[in-house]
Amino acid sequence: MKIRSISYFCNPKYPIDEQALRRAGEFLATAKAAYESAGYEVQTLRLATIPFPRLLAGSNDFGRLNELPRIAQQLEHLIQQAGIAYASLGPALPEEPGSYAAIPDSIAATQNIFFSGVMADKSRGLDFAAVRACAQVIVDSAPLDPNGFANLRFAALANVQPGAPFFPAAYHDGNQPAFALATEAADLAVDAFTGASSVDEARRALISGMEQHGQVLSGVSNNELSDTRFLGIDFSLAPFPAEAQSLGTAFERLGVPAIGLHGSLAAAAILTESIERADFPRTGFSGLMMPVLEDATLARRAAEGSLTVKDILLYSAVCGTGLDTVPLPGDTSADQIMPLLLDLCALALRLDKPLTARLMPIPGKRAGDPTTFDFGFFANSRVMALQSEPLSPPLASPQVLRLRKR
């Protein structure tokens, strides 16, 4: 298991307070050293702000969202000086409809700044205009990179609360700094399930492993780093594109012949329940993260056709963080993406769980085409078919829909 990121949450104000970012960098450097001393590899140091429409709301030059690319560039420069690898400027908000359209140019202007967009939450309901706006951001961002990589830095959010340390979903909601840990821990499930004689034995082994790591990580967080509020650990069992660090491998070690076949939903539920049973200070999703292109087995099963977009959405009903690094045809339209995002929002609100969509239309690719990424954090697969057509009224009409928790 590794620490994928130590994420620091703050409100750097606007104009950006450079001293606040320096303090963030100093804290993150101290935290990295503390966790490494405890035996953990720390992959990245990250910073997340309050939602950028609120960050800018008090500034004299706000009101022209074409300023966002310049501000994103400034933040990128400052975090590099502070020793921070990545920053999230948080989500576009339905109350600022123009904030969504400002994101693609801001992604194009930077390399290490992430964004998101709120589609639905319990207080607002499901905002159809925001869903459509997120779909348009995905389409507009796709051609910014020949591999479609610009969409790695954007996620559409449904019922996601502040304090989740995984990017692009991370954002803050206050003025006092805080921090949280995101883990890369699919290998815990692979190890726990390999050779297990029963589901109960497999589950106990996974829970024990998570609790042991959670105790050590919490001890460091609450002792050496106690001057800054600790939000918790997001044990979402995130994978790496190698078989021994694959959540898909964990499914198959549990007894599913190939992830995507029947039995996979039950395996997803067992894995998620194990995370829920484990005793550790939790934040964020703390579920199953199933990024197709970041998981060797998921990528292989998607290429074979046994794992589909509908399957991953189905598993989100009992686990998950939603749809992540899903390769789609390059000519996918916003009208085709919107129904998928609506389904995701409906699950998030009815089940009262956080879900995201990080979709990647690949320029020039069609469904079934092989991907040819030369990227150490991706496993190659095939472009997945999106079985979706534009909606018709009344479902396609602009509206805000209240969906009560079941």
Structure, explained:
- The chain has 406 residues and is α/β, with parallel strands linked by helices.
- It has helices spanning 18-37, 52-56, 68-81, 98-101, 103-108, 128-141, 186-193, 199-222, 247-253, 264-277, 296-304, 309-315, 334-350; strands at residues 2-9, 42-48, 86-92, 113-121, 125-127, 154-158, 178-184, 229-234, 322-329, 355-362, 400-401.
- Strands 1, 2, 3, 4, 5, 6, 7, 8, 9, 10 and 11 form an eleven-stranded mixed β-sheet that branches.
- The relative contact order is 0.13.
Describe the secondary-structure layout.
Layout: E1 2-9, H1 18-37, E2 42-48, H2 52-56, H3 68-81, E3 86-92, H4 98-101, H5 103-108, E4 113-121, E5 125-127, H6 128-141, E6 154-158, E7 178-184, H7 186-193, H8 199-222, E8 229-234, H9 247-253, H10 264-277, H11 296-304, H12 309-315, E9 322-329, H13 334-350, E10 355-362, E11 400-401
Parallel strand pairs: 1-2, 2-3, 3-4, 4-6, 7-8, 9-10
Antiparallel strand pairs: 1-7, 4-5, 5-11, 6-10
Helix pairs in contact: 6-13, 7-8, 7-9, 8-10
Name the descriptors.
406 residues; alpha/beta; 13 helices; 11 strands; globular
Supply the CATH architecture.
Alpha-Beta Barrel
Structural class: alpha/beta
CATH class group:
Alpha Beta
What is the helix/strand order? EHEHHEHHEEHEEHHEHHHHEHEE
Unreliable residue runs = none
Tally of separate domains: 1
Assembly annotation: single chain
Could you give a short description of this structure?
This protein is of the alpha/beta class and 406 residues long. It has 13 helices and eleven strands. Strands 1, 2, 3, 4, 5, 6, 7, 8, 9, 10 and 11 form an eleven-stranded mixed β-sheet that branches.
